[in-house]
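quick q for whoever's on today - can somebody do inverse folding on this one?? i tried earlier but teh output was garbage lol. tokens:
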């Protein structure tokens, strides 16, 4: 609790009374703590690749100067770390954009089927690198809903990208679009977009925290895959902004299914 007191001076020059303001600051303190934690996380995420890069610069100047093989290897690592920092900055900007309520664009009628198939098409090269088959269904007919086309594309891209990254190598990702006359989670008509992989799945105790910024089940694996830990936080924000719902179902060892429900009205 925050207490402020002011003692106005009376006409005789002596304190004429006392005003006391009481304000519950708990929510502000919590917001402040979350902000500090976020800044600490961001610094850590940026510092890790920076430390690696400056270490390799030292090595390239010194011991590895005359070793072409080592030089090539270190330059590859430096390039990978730089790419990771770029992705982190991109994701931070996306997160800031979707969190900025004032800059929200009014929703327009978009064809979700077209956006979903466009996002999936763009991810075929990535899927091929892990020999993953992307199977898309339900996108033959237009499916119009109010929304922001860039943001919805980002939702679909993040979910399918995760399914490719964390799914089984050589496995399959099923992506489908359905129209529901009465979606329970929305209490009305909506579109349901499902992304299901046959990977190792997620242990139940992590499910509730996956959409927190920087929350990862296996940090080493996420980093190895080039992850920033922000993808699902961005997804959750965008879905909320569309007054939609995100459902995550998974069991360790049995693959994961991410479903997005978007209201039609
Ligand atoms: P990242 O950049 O680490 O992929 P995300 O926010 O997209 O960050 O995801 C958070 C974490 O959720 C990931 O690090 C991973 O542990 C887990 N995760 C996300 N999608 C899947 C999936 N399809 N299968 C298994 N785990 C997943």
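ok took a stab at it. sequence:
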């Amino acid at each position: 609790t925050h207490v402020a007191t002011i003692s106005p001076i009376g006409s005789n020059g002596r304190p004429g009374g006392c005003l006391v303001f009481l304000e519950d600051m708990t929510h502000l303190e919590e917001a402040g703590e979350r902000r500090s934690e976020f800044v600490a996380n961001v610094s850590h995420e940026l510092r890790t690749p920076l430390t690696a890069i400056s270490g390799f610069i030292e090595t390239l100047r010194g011991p590895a100067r005359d070793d072409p093989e080592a030089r090539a290897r270190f330059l590859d690592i430096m390039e990978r770390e730089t790419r990771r920092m770029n992705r982190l900055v991109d994701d931070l900007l996306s997160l800031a954009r979707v969190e900025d309520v004032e800059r929200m664009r009014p929703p327009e009628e978009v064809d979700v089927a077209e956006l979903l198939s466009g996002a999936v098409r763009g991810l075929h090269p990535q899927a091929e690198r892990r020999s993953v088959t992307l199977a898309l269904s339900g996108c033959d007919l237009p499916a119009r809903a109010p929304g922001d086309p860039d943001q919805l594309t980002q939702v679909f891209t993040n979910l399918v990208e995760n399914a490719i990254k964390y799914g089984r190598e050589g496995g399959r990702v099923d992506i489908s679009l359905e129209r529901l006359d009465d979606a329970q989670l929305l209490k009305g008509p909506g579109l349901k977009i499902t992304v299901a992989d046959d990977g190792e799945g997620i242990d139940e105790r992590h499910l509730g925290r996956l959409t927190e910024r920087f929350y990862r089940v296996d940090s080493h694996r996420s980093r190895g895959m080039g992850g920033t830990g922000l993808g699902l936080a961005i997804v959750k924000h965008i879905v909320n902004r569309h007054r939609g719902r995100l459902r995550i179902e998974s069991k360790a060892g049995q693959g994961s299914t991410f479903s997005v429900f978007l209201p039609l009205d």
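fwiw The longest helix spans residues 26-61. also The chain has a mean pLDDT of 91. so keep that in mind when u check it
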